[in-house]
Amino acid sequence: MTTTTVTPVPPTAPVTGVRTGRRPPRKMTSVSRRRVAITLTLVGLILGALFAGAPVIWMLFSSFKSNPEIFAYPPQLLTENSSLAPYLAILNDPRQLRFFVNSYVVSLAVAVLTLLVAVHAAYAFSRYDFPGKSIVNIAVISVQAVPPITLLIPYFGLVVALGLYNTYPGLILTYMVFTLPYAIIMMTGYFNTLPKELDEAARVDGTSSFGALWRILIPIAVPGMVSVGMYTFMIAWNEYLFALTLTRTDDMRTVPIGIQLLMGQHSYDWNQMMAMSVLGSLPVILLFIFFQRYFIGGMTSGSVKS
Amino acid sequence: MAQSRQHKVTAAAFGYLSPTLVLLAVLMALPIGMVVWYSLQNNVITNANPEFIGFEHYLDIFGDSQFHAAIKNTSVFVLASVVAHLFLGLGFAMLLNTQLLPHWVKTLFRTIFVLPWLLTVAIVAVLWRLILNPSGVFNYLLVSTGVIDSPQEWLADPKLALFAVVLINIWCGYPFFMISMLAGLQGISAELYEAASVDGAGLIRKFFSITLPQLRPIIISMLLLDIIWTSHQFTLIWMTTGGGPLDRTELLSTYTYKLAFSQYMFSAASASAVVVLVISAVLAFAYVRHQRARD
Protein backbone atom coordinates (compact mmCIF):
# COMPACT_ATOMS: atom_id res chain seq x y z
CA MET A 1 0.00 0.00 0.00
CA THR A 2 1.54 3.33 -1.00
CA THR A 3 0.43 6.92 -0.93
CA THR A 4 0.02 7.17 -4.69
CA THR A 5 -3.46 5.66 -4.84
CA VAL A 6 -6.64 7.59 -4.14
CA THR A 7 -7.10 5.86 -0.77
CA PRO A 8 -3.82 6.38 0.98
CA VAL A 9 -3.28 4.74 4.30
CA PRO A 10 -0.54 6.79 5.98
CA PRO A 11 -0.26 8.00 8.60
CA THR A 12 -2.55 5.20 9.59
CA ALA A 13 -0.76 2.12 8.42
CA PRO A 14 2.89 2.38 7.62
CA VAL A 15 3.89 -0.40 9.97
CA THR A 16 3.05 -3.39 7.86
CA GLY A 17 3.35 -1.40 4.69
CA VAL A 18 6.99 -0.48 5.00
CA ARG A 19 8.69 -3.75 4.38
CA THR A 20 11.94 -3.67 2.58
CA GLY A 21 11.83 -7.31 1.63
CA ARG A 22 15.57 -7.23 1.93
CA ARG A 23 17.39 -10.40 2.81
CA PRO A 24 20.95 -10.50 4.05
CA PRO A 25 23.42 -11.27 1.31
CA ARG A 26 23.87 -15.01 0.97
CA LYS A 27 27.31 -16.46 1.16
CA MET A 28 28.10 -20.15 1.31
CA THR A 29 29.69 -19.80 4.77
CA SER A 30 26.79 -17.82 6.17
CA VAL A 31 24.25 -20.66 6.04
CA SER A 32 25.05 -22.02 9.49
CA ARG A 33 25.41 -18.51 10.89
CA ARG A 34 21.97 -17.77 9.53
CA ARG A 35 20.60 -20.83 11.32
CA VAL A 36 22.07 -19.67 14.61
CA ALA A 37 20.57 -16.21 14.07
CA ILE A 38 17.12 -17.68 13.32
CA THR A 39 17.28 -19.91 16.40
CA LEU A 40 18.33 -17.06 18.68
CA THR A 41 15.60 -14.79 17.30
CA LEU A 42 12.98 -17.50 17.81
CA VAL A 43 14.16 -18.17 21.37
CA GLY A 44 13.87 -14.44 22.12
CA LEU A 45 10.42 -14.25 20.55
CA ILE A 46 9.16 -17.29 22.45
CA LEU A 47 10.48 -15.99 25.80
CA GLY A 48 8.78 -12.66 25.05
CA ALA A 49 5.55 -14.41 24.11
CA LEU A 50 5.62 -16.30 27.42
CA PHE A 51 6.06 -13.07 29.36
CA ALA A 52 3.26 -11.32 27.43
CA GLY A 53 0.90 -14.23 26.88
CA ALA A 54 1.12 -16.46 29.95
CA PRO A 55 -0.95 -14.20 32.24
CA VAL A 56 -3.62 -13.91 29.52
CA ILE A 57 -3.68 -17.69 29.10
CA TRP A 58 -3.95 -18.02 32.88
CA MET A 59 -6.95 -15.67 32.87
CA LEU A 60 -8.63 -17.65 30.08
CA PHE A 61 -8.19 -21.07 31.70
CA SER A 62 -9.04 -19.81 35.19
CA SER A 63 -12.34 -18.52 33.83
CA PHE A 64 -13.48 -22.11 33.22
CA LYS A 65 -12.39 -23.60 36.54
CA SER A 66 -14.61 -24.32 39.47
CA ASN A 67 -13.83 -21.96 42.29
CA PRO A 68 -12.12 -24.46 44.64
CA GLU A 69 -9.76 -25.38 41.78
CA ILE A 70 -8.52 -21.80 41.32
CA PHE A 71 -5.76 -22.17 43.91
CA ALA A 72 -5.21 -25.91 43.41
CA TYR A 73 -1.75 -27.08 44.46
CA PRO A 74 0.20 -27.57 42.29
CA PRO A 75 -1.46 -25.10 39.88
CA GLN A 76 -3.08 -26.69 36.85
CA LEU A 77 -4.07 -25.09 33.57
CA LEU A 78 -6.93 -27.46 32.79
CA THR A 79 -8.82 -28.91 35.70
CA GLU A 80 -11.29 -31.73 36.14
CA ASN A 81 -14.31 -29.52 36.76
CA SER A 82 -13.67 -26.93 34.05
CA SER A 83 -16.95 -25.83 32.52
CA LEU A 84 -18.87 -22.88 31.15
CA ALA A 85 -20.60 -22.39 34.49
CA PRO A 86 -18.75 -19.15 35.43
CA TYR A 87 -19.78 -17.64 32.08
CA LEU A 88 -23.39 -18.74 32.50
CA ALA A 89 -23.41 -17.18 35.96
CA ILE A 90 -22.36 -13.83 34.46
CA LEU A 91 -24.57 -14.02 31.37
CA ASN A 92 -27.67 -15.02 33.33
CA ASP A 93 -27.33 -12.15 35.76
CA PRO A 94 -29.23 -9.09 34.46
CA ARG A 95 -27.17 -6.85 36.72
CA GLN A 96 -23.90 -7.95 35.08
CA LEU A 97 -25.40 -7.78 31.58
CA ARG A 98 -26.43 -4.21 32.23
CA PHE A 99 -22.76 -3.29 32.78
CA PHE A 100 -21.99 -4.60 29.29
CA VAL A 101 -24.93 -2.75 27.73
CA ASN A 102 -23.78 0.47 29.41
CA SER A 103 -20.22 0.01 28.20
CA TYR A 104 -21.36 -0.61 24.62
CA VAL A 105 -23.76 2.35 24.60
CA VAL A 106 -21.23 4.78 26.05
CA SER A 107 -18.25 3.57 23.97
CA LEU A 108 -20.14 3.53 20.67
CA ALA A 109 -21.64 6.96 21.33
CA VAL A 110 -18.22 8.35 22.21
CA ALA A 111 -16.68 6.86 19.04
CA VAL A 112 -19.41 8.21 16.73
CA LEU A 113 -19.71 11.67 18.32
CA THR A 114 -15.93 12.10 18.54
CA LEU A 115 -15.58 11.29 14.84
CA LEU A 116 -18.39 13.65 13.93
CA VAL A 117 -16.82 16.59 15.77
CA ALA A 118 -13.26 15.66 14.79
CA VAL A 119 -13.73 15.47 11.00
CA HIS A 120 -15.03 19.04 10.95
CA ALA A 121 -12.17 20.36 13.08
CA ALA A 122 -9.68 18.37 10.99
CA TYR A 123 -11.20 19.80 7.80
CA ALA A 124 -10.58 23.32 9.13
CA PHE A 125 -6.99 22.48 10.10
CA SER A 126 -6.22 20.71 6.84
CA ARG A 127 -7.92 22.97 4.28
CA TYR A 128 -8.06 26.46 5.79
CA ASP A 129 -5.57 29.11 6.80
CA PHE A 130 -6.89 31.41 9.46
CA PRO A 131 -5.53 33.68 12.17
CA GLY A 132 -4.94 31.83 15.43
CA LYS A 133 -4.57 28.46 13.69
CA SER A 134 -1.33 27.51 15.41
CA ILE A 135 -2.64 28.61 18.83
CA VAL A 136 -5.77 26.47 18.47
CA ASN A 137 -3.57 23.63 17.23
CA ILE A 138 -1.25 23.84 20.25
CA ALA A 139 -4.27 23.99 22.55
CA VAL A 140 -5.65 20.77 21.04
CA ILE A 141 -2.28 19.00 21.41
CA SER A 142 -1.67 20.19 24.98
CA VAL A 143 -5.07 19.06 26.19
CA GLN A 144 -3.82 15.46 25.87
CA ALA A 145 -1.37 16.04 28.69
CA VAL A 146 -3.91 17.34 31.20
CA PRO A 147 -4.08 14.81 34.06
CA PRO A 148 -7.53 13.20 34.45
CA ILE A 149 -7.26 13.56 38.21
CA THR A 150 -7.01 17.36 37.80
CA LEU A 151 -10.28 17.48 35.88
CA LEU A 152 -12.06 15.00 38.13
CA ILE A 153 -12.97 17.36 40.97
CA PRO A 154 -14.35 20.23 38.82
CA TYR A 155 -16.15 17.67 36.61
CA PHE A 156 -17.81 16.27 39.67
CA GLY A 157 -19.00 19.78 40.53
CA LEU A 158 -20.03 20.56 36.92
CA VAL A 159 -21.79 17.28 36.22
CA VAL A 160 -23.80 17.53 39.43
CA ALA A 161 -24.67 21.18 38.69
CA LEU A 162 -25.79 20.35 35.13
CA GLY A 163 -27.94 17.43 36.32
CA LEU A 164 -25.77 14.95 34.39
CA TYR A 165 -24.56 13.00 37.43
CA ASN A 166 -25.21 9.27 36.99
CA THR A 167 -26.32 9.61 33.32
CA TYR A 168 -24.98 8.45 29.94
CA PRO A 169 -24.49 12.02 28.60
CA GLY A 170 -22.35 12.89 31.62
CA LEU A 171 -19.95 10.04 30.85
CA ILE A 172 -20.04 10.51 27.07
CA LEU A 173 -19.21 14.24 27.22
CA THR A 174 -16.44 13.60 29.72
CA TYR A 175 -14.81 10.91 27.59
CA MET A 176 -14.98 13.06 24.47
CA VAL A 177 -12.57 15.55 26.02
CA PHE A 178 -9.97 12.79 26.14
CA THR A 179 -10.69 11.25 22.74
CA LEU A 180 -11.23 14.41 20.71
CA PRO A 181 -7.66 15.81 20.60
CA TYR A 182 -6.26 12.49 19.43
CA ALA A 183 -9.02 12.13 16.82
CA ILE A 184 -8.50 15.65 15.49
CA ILE A 185 -4.72 15.20 15.17
CA MET A 186 -5.18 11.85 13.41
CA MET A 187 -7.87 13.04 11.01
CA THR A 188 -5.94 16.23 10.17
CA GLY A 189 -2.95 14.08 9.28
CA TYR A 190 -5.19 11.87 7.20
CA PHE A 191 -6.85 14.74 5.32
CA ASN A 192 -3.40 16.19 4.65
CA THR A 193 -2.52 13.06 2.69
CA LEU A 194 -5.55 13.54 0.42
CA PRO A 195 -4.79 15.83 -2.54
CA LYS A 196 -6.44 19.27 -2.29
CA GLU A 197 -7.39 19.04 -5.98
CA LEU A 198 -10.11 16.55 -5.03
CA ASP A 199 -12.24 18.92 -3.03
CA GLU A 200 -11.17 21.97 -5.05
CA ALA A 201 -12.55 20.33 -8.20
CA ALA A 202 -15.84 19.80 -6.43
CA ARG A 203 -15.86 23.42 -5.27
CA VAL A 204 -15.35 24.60 -8.88
CA ASP A 205 -18.38 22.53 -9.85
CA GLY A 206 -20.42 24.60 -7.41
CA THR A 207 -20.41 22.33 -4.35
CA SER A 208 -20.25 24.11 -1.01
CA SER A 209 -17.26 23.52 1.27
CA PHE A 210 -19.55 21.49 3.52
CA GLY A 211 -20.65 19.38 0.55
CA ALA A 212 -17.03 18.86 -0.51
CA LEU A 213 -16.22 17.56 2.96
CA TRP A 214 -19.16 15.16 3.17
CA ARG A 215 -19.41 14.01 -0.43
CA ILE A 216 -15.74 13.93 -1.46
CA LEU A 217 -13.40 13.74 1.54
CA ILE A 218 -15.30 11.70 4.09
CA PRO A 219 -16.06 8.77 1.74
CA ILE A 220 -12.34 8.51 0.91
CA ALA A 221 -11.31 8.94 4.54
CA VAL A 222 -13.22 5.88 5.79
CA PRO A 223 -10.06 3.83 6.56
CA GLY A 224 -8.70 6.66 8.70
CA MET A 225 -12.04 7.06 10.42
CA VAL A 226 -12.21 3.34 11.18
CA SER A 227 -8.80 3.56 12.82
CA VAL A 228 -9.70 6.61 14.90
CA GLY A 229 -13.10 5.18 15.77
CA MET A 230 -11.65 1.95 17.12
CA TYR A 231 -9.03 3.70 19.16
CA THR A 232 -11.69 6.00 20.58
CA PHE A 233 -13.96 3.06 21.36
CA MET A 234 -11.11 1.41 23.22
CA ILE A 235 -10.32 4.47 25.32
CA ALA A 236 -13.98 4.76 26.32
CA TRP A 237 -14.36 1.02 26.93
CA ASN A 238 -11.35 0.99 29.27
CA GLU A 239 -12.05 4.18 31.23
CA TYR A 240 -12.32 3.69 34.98
CA LEU A 241 -11.73 6.85 37.03
CA PHE A 242 -14.63 8.94 35.70
CA ALA A 243 -17.00 5.97 35.51
CA LEU A 244 -16.21 5.35 39.17
CA THR A 245 -16.81 8.93 40.23
CA LEU A 246 -19.57 10.20 37.93
CA THR A 247 -21.98 7.26 38.22
CA ARG A 248 -23.62 5.92 41.34
CA THR A 249 -26.20 3.23 40.60
CA ASP A 250 -25.69 -0.23 39.10
CA ASP A 251 -27.85 0.59 36.06
CA MET A 252 -25.28 3.23 34.98
CA ARG A 253 -22.03 1.42 35.85
CA THR A 254 -19.69 0.21 33.09
CA VAL A 255 -17.74 -3.06 32.82
CA PRO A 256 -14.51 -1.94 34.58
CA ILE A 257 -16.55 -0.84 37.59
CA GLY A 258 -18.68 -3.98 37.34
CA ILE A 259 -15.55 -6.13 37.69
CA GLN A 260 -14.53 -4.16 40.74
CA LEU A 261 -18.00 -4.57 42.26
CA LEU A 262 -17.79 -8.32 41.66
CA MET A 263 -14.53 -8.29 43.58
CA GLY A 264 -16.00 -6.39 46.49
CA GLN A 265 -19.08 -8.57 46.75
CA HIS A 266 -17.92 -12.12 46.38
CA SER A 267 -14.23 -11.74 46.97
CA TYR A 268 -13.74 -15.46 46.45
CA ASP A 269 -15.53 -15.99 43.11
CA TRP A 270 -12.31 -15.74 41.12
CA ASN A 271 -13.66 -17.87 38.27
CA GLN A 272 -16.56 -15.45 37.69
CA MET A 273 -14.23 -12.48 37.90
CA MET A 274 -12.01 -14.07 35.26
CA ALA A 275 -15.03 -14.93 33.07
CA MET A 276 -16.19 -11.33 33.24
CA SER A 277 -12.63 -10.18 32.47
CA VAL A 278 -12.53 -12.38 29.38
CA LEU A 279 -15.92 -11.08 28.24
CA GLY A 280 -14.78 -7.52 28.97
CA SER A 281 -11.57 -7.97 26.97
CA LEU A 282 -13.13 -9.64 23.94
CA PRO A 283 -14.45 -6.57 22.09
CA VAL A 284 -11.08 -4.83 22.05
CA ILE A 285 -9.09 -7.99 21.28
CA LEU A 286 -11.42 -8.91 18.41
CA LEU A 287 -11.27 -5.37 17.01
CA PHE A 288 -7.50 -5.57 17.17
CA ILE A 289 -7.25 -8.93 15.45
CA PHE A 290 -9.57 -8.01 12.59
CA PHE A 291 -8.29 -4.48 12.06
CA GLN A 292 -4.64 -4.79 13.15
CA ARG A 293 -3.31 -2.56 10.43
CA TYR A 294 -5.58 0.34 11.35
CA PHE A 295 -5.05 -0.16 15.05
CA ILE A 296 -1.28 -0.11 14.89
CA GLY A 297 -1.37 2.91 12.63
CA GLY A 298 -3.37 4.65 15.33
CA MET A 299 -0.93 3.69 18.05
CA THR A 300 2.15 4.95 16.25
CA SER A 301 0.92 8.25 14.87
CA GLY A 302 1.62 10.07 18.10
CA SER A 303 5.34 9.59 18.02
CA VAL A 304 6.35 8.56 14.54
CA LYS A 305 6.39 11.04 11.73
CA SER A 306 5.46 9.68 8.34
CA MET B 1 -12.42 42.30 -1.92
CA ALA B 2 -9.47 40.14 -0.87
CA GLN B 3 -10.01 41.13 2.72
CA SER B 4 -13.69 40.20 2.80
CA ARG B 5 -12.83 36.85 1.22
CA GLN B 6 -10.29 36.22 3.95
CA HIS B 7 -12.99 37.08 6.52
CA LYS B 8 -15.32 34.55 4.93
CA VAL B 9 -12.61 31.89 4.96
CA THR B 10 -11.84 32.59 8.62
CA ALA B 11 -15.52 32.48 9.49
CA ALA B 12 -15.92 29.14 7.71
CA ALA B 13 -12.87 27.68 9.47
CA PHE B 14 -14.13 28.72 12.89
CA GLY B 15 -17.56 27.41 11.94
CA TYR B 16 -16.06 23.95 11.44
CA LEU B 17 -14.06 24.31 14.64
CA SER B 18 -16.92 25.61 16.76
CA PRO B 19 -18.11 22.27 18.27
CA THR B 20 -14.52 21.48 19.26
CA LEU B 21 -13.92 24.95 20.68
CA VAL B 22 -17.17 24.88 22.69
CA LEU B 23 -16.34 21.44 24.13
CA LEU B 24 -12.78 22.45 25.00
CA ALA B 25 -13.96 25.70 26.57
CA VAL B 26 -16.67 24.10 28.71
CA LEU B 27 -14.90 20.85 29.57
CA MET B 28 -11.27 21.93 29.65
CA ALA B 29 -10.70 25.66 30.15
CA LEU B 30 -13.60 26.12 32.58
CA PRO B 31 -12.73 23.08 34.78
CA ILE B 32 -9.07 24.13 34.98
CA GLY B 33 -10.18 27.58 36.08
CA MET B 34 -12.55 25.94 38.58
CA VAL B 35 -9.92 23.66 40.10
CA VAL B 36 -7.55 26.59 40.61
CA TRP B 37 -10.37 28.61 42.19
CA TYR B 38 -11.41 25.64 44.37
CA SER B 39 -7.85 25.27 45.64
CA LEU B 40 -7.88 28.81 47.02
CA GLN B 41 -11.08 28.35 49.09
CA ASN B 42 -11.35 26.83 52.55
CA ASN B 43 -13.58 24.08 51.16
CA VAL B 44 -16.06 23.61 48.30
CA ILE B 45 -18.84 21.27 47.09
CA THR B 46 -19.69 20.08 50.62
CA ASN B 47 -19.47 23.66 51.88
CA ALA B 48 -22.26 26.11 50.97
CA ASN B 49 -20.32 29.29 51.79
CA PRO B 50 -16.68 28.87 50.79
CA GLU B 51 -14.18 31.47 51.96
CA PHE B 52 -11.08 32.61 50.12
CA ILE B 53 -7.97 31.52 52.01
CA GLY B 54 -5.21 31.95 49.43
CA PHE B 55 -2.40 29.43 49.27
CA GLU B 56 -3.00 27.78 52.64
CA HIS B 57 -3.91 24.38 51.14
CA TYR B 58 -0.72 24.40 49.08
CA LEU B 59 1.37 25.06 52.18
CA ASP B 60 -0.47 22.29 54.05
CA ILE B 61 0.15 19.83 51.22
CA PHE B 62 3.82 20.70 50.87
CA GLY B 63 4.20 19.96 54.57
CA ASP B 64 2.23 16.69 54.46
CA SER B 65 4.40 13.59 54.83
CA GLN B 66 1.88 11.56 52.82
CA PHE B 67 2.30 14.00 49.94
CA HIS B 68 6.07 13.56 50.17
CA ALA B 69 5.59 9.79 50.05
CA ALA B 70 3.30 10.19 47.02
CA ILE B 71 5.91 12.29 45.20
CA LYS B 72 8.62 9.76 45.97
CA ASN B 73 6.49 6.74 45.00
CA THR B 74 5.27 8.40 41.80
CA SER B 75 8.88 9.15 40.79
CA VAL B 76 10.01 5.57 41.44
CA PHE B 77 6.91 4.11 39.76
CA VAL B 78 7.29 6.30 36.67
CA LEU B 79 11.05 5.97 36.25
CA ALA B 80 11.17 2.20 36.76
CA SER B 81 8.17 1.61 34.47
CA VAL B 82 9.37 3.90 31.69
CA VAL B 83 12.93 2.56 31.64
CA ALA B 84 11.61 -1.02 31.51
CA HIS B 85 9.11 -0.06 28.79
CA LEU B 86 11.97 1.36 26.74
CA PHE B 87 14.19 -1.72 27.06
CA LEU B 88 11.43 -4.28 26.54
CA GLY B 89 9.77 -2.24 23.79
CA LEU B 90 12.99 -1.75 21.87
CA GLY B 91 14.14 -5.35 22.40
CA PHE B 92 10.86 -6.88 21.26
CA ALA B 93 10.62 -4.47 18.32
CA MET B 94 14.10 -5.50 17.13
CA LEU B 95 13.16 -9.18 17.38
CA LEU B 96 9.96 -8.50 15.41
CA ASN B 97 11.87 -6.51 12.79
CA THR B 98 14.00 -9.51 11.81
CA GLN B 99 14.33 -10.35 8.14
CA LEU B 100 14.94 -14.00 8.99
CA LEU B 101 11.39 -15.12 9.65
CA PRO B 102 8.30 -15.25 7.41
CA HIS B 103 5.78 -12.45 7.70
CA TRP B 104 3.02 -14.54 9.28
CA VAL B 105 5.29 -15.66 12.13
CA LYS B 106 6.11 -12.06 12.92
CA THR B 107 2.43 -11.06 12.78
CA LEU B 108 1.57 -13.88 15.18
CA PHE B 109 4.21 -12.84 17.69
CA ARG B 110 3.33 -9.18 17.32
CA THR B 111 -0.29 -9.97 18.21
CA ILE B 112 0.79 -11.90 21.32
CA PHE B 113 3.18 -9.11 22.35
CA VAL B 114 0.41 -6.49 22.08
CA LEU B 115 -2.12 -8.52 24.13
CA PRO B 116 -1.30 -7.02 27.58
CA TRP B 117 -1.91 -3.53 26.24
CA LEU B 118 -5.34 -4.51 24.87
CA LEU B 119 -6.66 -5.51 28.29
CA THR B 120 -8.55 -2.91 30.28
CA VAL B 121 -6.42 -1.75 33.22
CA ALA B 122 -9.19 -2.76 35.62
CA ILE B 123 -8.96 -6.31 34.21
CA VAL B 124 -5.16 -6.27 34.38
CA ALA B 125 -5.45 -5.37 38.06
CA VAL B 126 -7.86 -8.22 38.88
CA LEU B 127 -5.84 -10.72 36.83
CA TRP B 128 -2.59 -9.88 38.64
CA ARG B 129 -4.29 -10.01 42.01
CA LEU B 130 -5.07 -13.61 41.13
CA ILE B 131 -1.56 -14.34 39.86
CA LEU B 132 0.25 -12.61 42.76
CA ASN B 133 -2.03 -14.12 45.41
CA PRO B 134 -0.05 -15.80 48.22
CA SER B 135 -1.39 -19.16 47.02
CA GLY B 136 -1.23 -18.12 43.38
CA VAL B 137 0.79 -19.30 40.44
CA PHE B 138 3.55 -16.63 40.67
CA ASN B 139 4.53 -17.72 44.17
CA TYR B 140 4.32 -21.37 43.15
CA LEU B 141 6.72 -20.86 40.24
CA LEU B 142 9.22 -18.84 42.29
CA VAL B 143 9.16 -21.25 45.24
CA SER B 144 9.40 -24.40 43.13
CA THR B 145 12.35 -22.99 41.16
CA GLY B 146 14.04 -21.94 44.40
CA VAL B 147 14.06 -18.19 43.68
CA ILE B 148 12.27 -17.50 46.98
CA ASP B 149 11.95 -19.69 50.09
CA SER B 150 8.30 -19.15 50.89
CA PRO B 151 5.24 -17.55 49.27
CA GLN B 152 5.11 -13.75 49.55
CA GLU B 153 2.21 -11.32 49.95
CA TRP B 154 3.38 -9.32 46.93
CA LEU B 155 0.68 -6.66 47.09
CA ALA B 156 0.28 -6.52 50.87
CA ASP B 157 3.92 -6.55 52.02
CA PRO B 158 5.20 -2.97 52.51
CA LYS B 159 8.61 -4.00 51.22
CA LEU B 160 7.28 -5.61 48.03
CA ALA B 161 4.12 -3.72 47.04
CA LEU B 162 5.75 -0.94 45.02
CA PHE B 163 7.87 -3.50 43.17
CA ALA B 164 4.73 -5.54 42.45
CA VAL B 165 2.71 -2.65 41.00
CA VAL B 166 5.71 -1.58 38.92
CA LEU B 167 5.96 -5.14 37.58
CA ILE B 168 2.29 -5.10 36.59
CA ASN B 169 2.63 -1.68 35.00
CA ILE B 170 5.67 -2.83 33.01
CA TRP B 171 3.71 -5.83 31.76
CA CYS B 172 0.74 -3.85 30.49
CA GLY B 173 2.59 -0.75 29.25
CA TYR B 174 5.52 -1.84 27.07
CA PRO B 175 3.52 -2.71 23.91
CA PHE B 176 2.81 0.94 23.19
CA PHE B 177 6.55 1.58 23.16
CA MET B 178 7.20 -1.55 21.13
CA ILE B 179 4.81 -0.64 18.31
CA SER B 180 6.31 2.84 17.90
CA MET B 181 9.84 1.44 17.98
CA LEU B 182 8.86 -1.13 15.36
CA ALA B 183 7.49 1.57 13.07
CA GLY B 184 10.68 3.55 13.65
CA LEU B 185 12.90 0.56 12.86
CA GLN B 186 11.01 -0.10 9.66
CA GLY B 187 11.61 3.48 8.64
CA ILE B 188 15.40 3.13 8.77
CA SER B 189 16.83 2.77 5.30
CA ALA B 190 18.34 -0.66 4.60
CA GLU B 191 21.13 1.06 2.68
CA LEU B 192 22.56 2.43 5.92
CA TYR B 193 23.06 -1.10 7.23
CA GLU B 194 24.45 -2.31 3.91
CA ALA B 195 26.98 0.49 3.82
CA ALA B 196 28.00 -0.34 7.39
CA SER B 197 28.39 -4.01 6.47
CA VAL B 198 30.68 -3.06 3.62
CA ASP B 199 32.75 -1.08 6.11
CA GLY B 200 32.98 -4.21 8.23
CA ALA B 201 30.72 -3.08 11.10
CA GLY B 202 29.36 -5.86 13.34
CA LEU B 203 25.88 -6.13 14.85
CA ILE B 204 26.72 -4.22 18.02
CA ARG B 205 28.49 -1.49 16.12
CA LYS B 206 25.48 -1.16 13.78
CA PHE B 207 23.11 -0.92 16.73
CA PHE B 208 25.03 1.94 18.35
CA SER B 209 25.97 3.88 15.24
CA ILE B 210 22.84 3.40 13.10
CA THR B 211 19.82 2.04 14.97
CA LEU B 212 20.03 4.17 18.12
CA PRO B 213 20.84 7.51 16.43
CA GLN B 214 18.08 6.93 13.86
CA LEU B 215 15.52 6.10 16.55
CA ARG B 216 16.59 8.93 18.86
CA PRO B 217 13.76 11.36 18.01
CA ILE B 218 11.09 8.65 18.41
CA ILE B 219 12.64 7.41 21.64
CA ILE B 220 12.63 10.92 23.13
CA SER B 221 8.98 11.47 22.08
CA MET B 222 7.92 8.14 23.53
CA LEU B 223 9.84 8.69 26.77
CA LEU B 224 8.12 12.04 27.34
CA LEU B 225 4.66 10.68 26.45
CA ASP B 226 5.17 7.62 28.63
CA ILE B 227 6.38 9.70 31.57
CA ILE B 228 3.28 11.91 31.28
CA TRP B 229 0.85 8.99 30.98
CA THR B 230 2.47 6.77 33.58
CA SER B 231 2.43 9.61 36.09
CA HIS B 232 -1.37 9.76 35.58
CA GLN B 233 -1.87 6.07 36.45
CA PHE B 234 -4.69 5.63 38.92
CA THR B 235 -6.76 2.54 38.13
CA LEU B 236 -3.97 0.01 38.52
CA ILE B 237 -3.04 1.26 41.99
CA TRP B 238 -6.61 1.80 43.10
CA MET B 239 -7.66 -1.74 42.20
CA THR B 240 -4.59 -3.59 43.49
CA THR B 241 -3.27 -1.88 46.63
CA GLY B 242 -5.42 1.23 47.00
CA GLY B 243 -2.18 3.11 47.77
CA GLY B 244 -1.27 0.86 50.68
CA PRO B 245 0.21 -0.89 52.55
CA LEU B 246 1.42 2.00 54.75
CA ASP B 247 1.26 4.45 51.80
CA ARG B 248 4.03 2.49 50.09
CA THR B 249 2.23 2.61 46.73
CA GLU B 250 0.43 5.93 47.21
CA LEU B 251 0.82 7.94 43.99
CA LEU B 252 -0.09 11.59 43.44
CA SER B 253 -3.27 10.45 41.69
CA THR B 254 -4.50 8.20 44.52
CA TYR B 255 -3.44 10.77 47.13
CA THR B 256 -5.51 13.45 45.37
CA TYR B 257 -8.47 11.12 44.90
CA LYS B 258 -8.54 10.14 48.57
CA LEU B 259 -8.39 13.75 49.73
CA ALA B 260 -11.45 14.49 47.60
CA PHE B 261 -13.62 11.39 47.71
CA SER B 262 -12.63 9.69 50.97
CA GLN B 263 -12.04 12.74 53.15
CA TYR B 264 -14.27 15.21 51.25
CA MET B 265 -11.54 17.85 51.45
CA PHE B 266 -12.26 19.02 47.92
CA SER B 267 -10.25 22.23 48.16
CA ALA B 268 -7.13 20.55 49.52
CA ALA B 269 -7.54 17.90 46.81
CA SER B 270 -7.83 20.69 44.23
CA ALA B 271 -4.52 22.14 45.40
CA SER B 272 -2.91 18.74 44.94
CA ALA B 273 -4.60 18.41 41.53
CA VAL B 274 -3.14 21.77 40.48
CA VAL B 275 0.34 20.61 41.51
CA VAL B 276 -0.13 17.50 39.34
CA LEU B 277 -1.28 19.72 36.49
CA VAL B 278 1.81 21.95 36.74
CA ILE B 279 4.13 18.93 36.66
CA SER B 280 2.34 17.57 33.58
CA ALA B 281 2.40 21.01 31.93
CA VAL B 282 6.19 21.19 32.25
CA LEU B 283 6.53 17.74 30.67
CA ALA B 284 4.01 18.58 27.95
CA PHE B 285 5.91 21.76 27.15
CA ALA B 286 9.07 19.70 26.64
CA TYR B 287 7.12 17.28 24.45
CA VAL B 288 5.55 19.97 22.23
CA ARG B 289 8.92 21.69 21.84
CA HIS B 290 10.55 18.42 20.87
CA GLN B 291 7.80 17.65 18.33
CA ARG B 292 8.11 21.13 16.81
CA ALA B 293 11.87 20.75 16.49
CA ARG B 294 11.30 17.53 14.53
CA ASP B 295 9.00 19.21 12.00
Which range does the strand content of chain B fall in? under 5%
CATH topology of the largest domain in chain A: MetI-like fold
Number of domains of chain B: 1
CATH hierarchy: architecture of chain B: Orthogonal Bundle
* Mass-distribution shape of chain A: globular
Strand content of chain A: under 5%
* Rg over alpha carbons of chain B: 24 Å
For the residues shown, what is the average pLDDT of chain A? Answer: 85
Cα radius of gyration of chain A in angstroms: 24 Å
What is the first-to-last residue Cα distance of chain A? 14 Å
Which CATH first-tier class of chain B would you pick? Mainly Alpha
Total count of strands of chain B: 0
The major beta sheet of chain A can be summarized as: none
The amount of helix of chain A comes to 55-70%
What features would you describe in this structure?
The complex is a heterodimer of chains A (306) and B (295). Chain A has 306 residues and is mostly helical. Chain A folds into two domains: 56 residues; 214 residues, MetI-like (MetI-like fold, Orthogonal Bundle), CATH 1.10.3720. Chain A is 70% helix and 0% strand. In chain A, helix 4 crosses helix 10. Chain B is mainly α. Chain B has a single domain, classed as Orthogonal Bundle (MetI-like fold), CATH 1.10.3720.10. Chain B is built from twelve helices and no strands. The radius of gyration of chain B is 24 Å and the shape is flat. The chains are: A mainly alpha (306), B mainly alpha (295).
Features:
heterodimer; A: 306 residues; mainly alpha; MetI-like fold; 2 domains; disordered C terminus; B: 295 residues; 12 helices; 75% helix
Describe the structure in brief.
Chain A is mainly α and 306 residues long. Chain A contains 14 helices and no strands. Chain A folds into two domains: 56 residues; 214 residues, MetI-like (MetI-like fold).
Chain-wise SSE layout:
The complex is a heterodimer of chains A (306) and B (295).
Chain A: H1 14-17, H2 30-62, H3 85-91, H4 94-127, H5 133-143, H6 148-161, H7 168-193, H8 196-204, H9 209-220, H10 222-238, H11 241-246, H12 255-265, H13 270-290, H14 292-300
Chain B: H1 2-39, H2 56-62, H3 65-96, H4 103-118, H5 121-131, H6 137-144, H7 161-186, H8 190-198, H9 203-231, H10 235-240, H11 252-261, H12 266-294
